[in-house]
Amino acid sequence: MAIGGVNDVSSTNEFEPAMQAAVRAILRASRHLDSTDADVVRRVADPDSALEALDVMQAHLGATAGRDVNGSRSALIDIGSARSDLLAYQLARQRAMMGRLTESLTRLRATTSVADLADSIPIHSVELGYERALFSWVRDERWVPHAMHTLNGPTEAHAVVEAGTQVPRHTRELLEIDVVRGRRTILVLDAMTNPRVHRQLHDVTQSQTYVAAPVIARNHVVGLLHLDRNADTGTTDEFDRDLLMLFSQSVGAQLDQLLPQESHDPAQPANMGVASWAEVLTEREGEVLHLVAHGLTNAQIAERLFISEETTKTHMRKLLRKLGASNRSQAGAMYHRLTAGRGLPHPSNE
Which run of H or of E encompasses 337? Predict the structure, then answer.
């Protein structure tokens, strides 16, 4: 879900000095080889592509060394120095992110309910060093966005979740089917053009690259975790994929601890996250759902609970998203079918 790539020198100037040195070395080599600067720089979008460009220039300079020994040698020295600095930069960046991973996992393990965990996952994901993170539930292989955190603010986060929950998409139509069925983390580098990207979400995010990982609990893929745009590199790469894999594994382990043993039927993996109603819904959401299941309108619920009708609608949107239900009738049916009216808080003055 990347916001944008780095395709020119002015953008690369936002990176560390090592990245700037790499660009300078590439440009100097391209001029020595009579290459077009614009074509060379276009290939430099992140540290990985910069390393690739350095390798290409090094090979070309080696092939022309006989024509201009001094010039080639000087350019090769620049490239070797820039390559070493860039590799050191990447190593330092990755070590710093691993340190953030340890800190985020410590905070993650302090959560005491499924609801708190689900809401905090995107926040802790962004703390790793990313601009946007989305956590979703998986219901019958349908992708149901739950919560998003973005450095661009809550308006964007709300728009993304709303776009994904209006009509939950089946993962068999999307790249995420490999995440759900293959239980593997994927790196998507062509989000702008790939027809199997979630189009409703992409229309909001305008992503260029992203990574997606499965969240596995009770031996089932119960959720998806997406990260978009490394704040340091401006894109996502194999390291981000591997880091997300480690993080999502810890999320699944925490879910296993928080879910009561009786809350999950292995034959019904899609019920994960809704089987333990008291864990997934807040007390107020449980009250609203109880009244919805018994046929009350939003206005009647607002009057019964002494809240505004707008607040009732907000609770309704949140509980529908958490349950993966498309409307109030479906949520009410789920209430009666899965709980038979047990375990949910309800108004004492009913």
Answer: helix 328-339
Q: Are 119 and 95 in contact (CB under 8 A)?
A: no
Residue 337: other Cβ atoms inside 10 A: 8
Same domain, 89 and 117: no
What are the beta bridge partners of residue 319? Answer: none
Do 156 and 210 share a domain, yes or no? yes
Q: Which two tokens stand for residue 213?
A: 């990982």
φ, ψ for residue 290 (rounded to 5)?
-60, -45
Contact 102, 247 (CB under 8 A): no
Two tokens, residue 99: 């340190």
* 3-state secondary structure at position 213: strand
- Contact partners, residue 172, CB within 8 Å, separation at least 6: 141
**Rg, the chain, Cα only:** 25
Is 299 within 8 Å of 309 (Cβ atoms)?
yes
Cα end-to-end span (Å), the chain: 46
Distance between CA atoms of residues 228 and 280, nearest Å = 26
| pLDDT tens-digit map of 153-201 | 888 998 898 888 877 788 988 999 999 999 999 999 999 999 999 988 9
Q: Give 108-144 pLDDT, tens digit per residue.
A: 888 888 888 898 999 999 999 899 999 999 988 889 8
Token pair of 303 as six digits: 């009057």
Residues 173 and 313 placed together within one structural domain of the fold: no
Would you say residue 26 lies in a domain? yes
Asked if 75 and 32 touch (Cβ cutoff 8 Å), the reply is yes
